[in-house]
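User: C-alpha cells in, sequence out, please.
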C-alpha cells in the first residue's frame, strides 16, 4: 500500500482546520492546520484532474475540478481557498486520467509560532490490515490524531486495536463507514486513553456485514502539547524482517538525534537489532506480539554521527523513524524494499531567502538497499512547475547499504531559487532514477530556518512503476 505509484484513482487523506482558532505562541496541538495538496503528473500525457472531498463519516462528495496538468508538471491546491465548509474535517480522492504522485502538507495558521509543516503521502489503494507503529496521548510531549479512510467502493466495518507498551489493549469498532469517508481518533479527546497512552495501532477492515477483506488506508498526525513540534506519516501494510532507514543522526550540530519505533506484527516474540552505517549495533531486543520498542541512535553511536541504518528481526516488523530536538520534528516510515525510479512531488531550494525564513530547502537522502551501484548509475532530475527539466545531479558510487545526498543547489543557477518564481507562484519536483532492477529508498527533508534553529519534516519518495 505505502508509496506505490498513484494512478487513475488517487486517494489522499487529510485533516483540515481541526482545532479552531489559533492563539499566538500556542503549542502545536492548540493550533489549526489547513491542508495543501502538492501533486505531480508522472504520466506521458496531459492529466485531467478533479478532487472529491468527503466530510468525516459522510459518503457524499464535494467535487471540485482542477486545471489540466502537463506531463512531469507539478501543482498544489490549498484547501482553505476552495469551496469547502470552514472547519472541514475529512478525506479526499484525487481522480486523474494520468498517474499522479502526491504529498499532503499541513499548513499551520499564520498567526502561530509553528514553523514545521507535517507531511504525508497519498495512496493508490488500501489493505485489509494496516499498521501504525506509534500512537501517543501526552507522552514525550505529543498527542496523536489517527485518521482511517475506507477506500473500498462499499461500506466497511473496521476493527481498531491500540496496543500499549504495557497494560491491556484498547479496542474500537467502526460500523459501516461509507466509501471514501474517514474516521478520526483524537486520542487527547477520548476518555479511553486518559491520562496517558504510549503504544501502537493495528487496523482490520471488512466489507460491511461480511468476513470479506475490506480496504482502508491510515495516517497519523503527532502534535506537541507544550512546544511547536508537529509531524505526520502514513500508515503501512508492508511488514518485513528487514527494514531500511535512510536517515540516522546522533546530536548532529549538537542537537539533532533520531529514534526508531519498531512494532512487532508477528504472532510470536521477535528479536530485533539495529545496525548503523558506522558499524554500531543496538540489540537484540525482544518485542512481544503487537507491541513496540524504541531504539535511540545515540545509545550506540557517537555525537555528530550522520548516516543510515538497517533493522533486522527474527519475524515481521514495521518501523517508524523520527528526528527530534533543535526545531526538527520529523517522521518517516521505514522501507521494506527499494525501487529504481522514485518521484518527489515537493522539492524546493533557496539561496536568497533561507536566512529570512521566507523560503524552504529540500534535502534528499538516497539509500541503496540493493547491490553496489557505480558512479554515474543514479541521477536526480529536477523539474520546474511546468514539467521542464532544469538540471540533473549525477551521483557518485553508492555501495550496498550506503547513502548519498542531493539538493537543487548542485544544478547551478537554475537551482538557486528552485521551485519559486518571480510572479509569486511556486512548484518544483524531482525524479531519482537508477538502473533497472536497482533498489533505492529516498527520504526528503523539507527545512525552514528561523533564527538559530532549523525546523523540518520528512516525507518518503514515491516509487514510479
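Assistant: Sequence out:
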Amino acid at each position: 500500500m505505502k508509496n506505490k505509484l498513484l494512478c487513475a484513482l488517487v486517494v489522499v487523506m487529510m485533516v483540515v482546520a481541526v482545532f479552531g482558532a489559533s492563539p499566538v505562541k500556542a503549542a502545536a496541538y492548540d493550533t489549526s492546520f489547513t491542508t495543501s495538496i502538492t501533486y505531480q503528473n508522472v504520466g506521458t500525457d496531459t492529466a485531467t484532474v478533479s478532487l472529491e472531498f468527503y466530510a468525516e463519516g459522510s459518503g457524499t462528495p464535494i467535487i471540485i475540478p482542477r486545471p489540466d496538468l502537463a506531463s512531469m508538471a507539478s501543482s498544489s491546491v490549498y484547501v482553505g481557498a476552495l469551496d469547502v465548509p470552514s472547519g472541514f474535517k475529512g478525506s479526499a480522492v484525487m481522480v486523474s486520467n494520468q498517474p499522479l504522485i502526491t504529498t499532503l502538507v499541513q499548513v499551520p495558521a499564520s498567526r502561530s509560532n509553528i514553523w514545521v509543516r507535517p507531511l504525508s503521502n497519498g495512496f493508490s489503494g488500501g489493505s485489509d490490515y494496516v499498521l501504525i507503529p506509534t500512537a501517543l496521548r501526552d507522552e514525550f510531549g505529543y498527542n496523536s490524531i489517527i485518521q482511517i479512510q475506507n477506500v473500498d467502493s462499499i461500506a466497511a466495518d473496521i476493527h481498531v486495536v491500540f496496543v500499549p507498551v504495557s497494560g491491556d489493549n484498547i479496542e474500537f469498532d467502526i460500523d459501516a463507514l461509507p466509501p471514501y469517508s474517514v474516521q478520526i481518533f483524537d486520542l487527547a479527546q477520548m476518555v479511553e486513553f486518559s491520562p496517558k497512552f504510549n503504544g501502537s495501532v493495528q487496523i482490520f477492515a471488512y466489507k460491511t456485514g461480511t468476513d470479506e477483506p475490506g480496504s482502508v488506508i491510515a495516517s497519523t498526525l503527532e502534535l506537541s502539547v507544550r512546544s511547536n513540534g508537529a509531524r505526520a506519516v502514513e500508515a503501512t501494510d508492508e511488514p518485513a524482517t528487514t527494514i531500511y532507514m535512510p536517515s540516522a543522526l546522533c546530536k548532529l550540530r549538537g542537537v539533532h538525534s533520531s529514534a526508531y519505533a519498531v512494532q512487532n506484527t508477528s504472532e510470536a516474540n521477535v528479536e530485533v537489532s539495529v545496525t548503523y552505517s558506522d558499524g554500531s549495533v543496538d540489540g537484540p531486543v525482544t518485542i512481544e506480539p503487537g507491541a513496540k520498542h524504541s531504539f535511540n541512535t545515540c545509545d550506540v553511536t557517537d555525537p555528530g554521527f550522520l548516516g543510515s541504518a538497517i533493522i533486522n528481526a527474527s519475524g515481521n516488523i514495521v518501523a517508524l523513524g523520527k528526528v527530534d530536538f533543535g526545531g526538527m520534528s520529523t517522521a518517516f516510515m521505514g522501507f521494506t524494499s527499494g525501487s529504481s525510479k522514485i518521484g518527489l512531488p515537493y522539492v524546493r531550494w533557496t539561496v536568497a531567502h533561507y536566512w529570512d525564513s521566507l523560503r524552504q530547502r529540500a534535502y534528499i537522502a538516497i539509500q541503496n538497499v540493493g547491490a553496489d551501484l557505480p558512479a554515474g548509475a543514479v541521477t536526480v532530475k529536477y523539474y520546474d512547475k511546468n514539467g521542464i527539466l532544469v538540471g540533473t545531479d549525477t551521483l557518485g558510487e553508492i555501495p550496498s547499504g550506503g547513502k548519498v545526498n542531493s539538493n537543487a543547489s548542485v544544478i547551478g543557477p537554475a537551482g538557486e531559487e528552485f521551485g519559486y518564481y518571480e510572479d509569486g507562484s511556486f512548484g518544483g519536483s524531482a525524479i531519482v532514477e537508477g538502473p533497472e532492477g536497482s533498489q533505492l529508498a529516498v527520504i526528503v527533508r523539507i527545512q525552514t530556518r528561523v533564527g538559530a534553529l532549523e525546523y523540518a519534516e520528512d516525507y518518503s519518495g514515491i516509487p514510479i512503476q
